[in-house]
Specification:
Layout (H helix, E strand, L loop, with lengths): L1 E3 L4 E7 L6 E6 L5 E4 L1 H8 L15
Antiparallel strand pairs: 1-2, 2-3, 3-4
C-alpha cells in the first residue's frame, strides 16, 4: 500500500521474514526503512498528540 501527500510518500508492507509479522514502512523519497513489530505499532496509538513532537519537519 502507498500513502501519499504533498509532504511524503511511503510504502507499507507486511514483512514475514522474522519470527512473526512486522510492519515495514519505506520512505519512497529517501529509501529509508523501519520495521515495527505489533507491540511497537500499538505503542504509537498510545502516544496521542505527543507523537507529533517526534516527527521533524520535512527537509527539501
Amino acid at each position: 500500500m502507498h500513502l501519499r501527500s504533498e509532504f511524503a510518500c511511503v510504502e507499507l508492507l507486511i514483512d514475514q521474514s522474522a519470527n512473526g509479522p512486522r510492519l515495514l514502512i519505506r520512505d519512497l523519497n529517501s529509501g529509508r526503512e523501519i520495521l515495527l513489530d505489533p507491540l511497537e505499532v500499538e505503542s504509537i496509538t498510545r502516544m496521542g498528540d505527543v507523537f507529533q513532537d517526534f516527527v521533524p519537519p520535512p527537509v527539501d
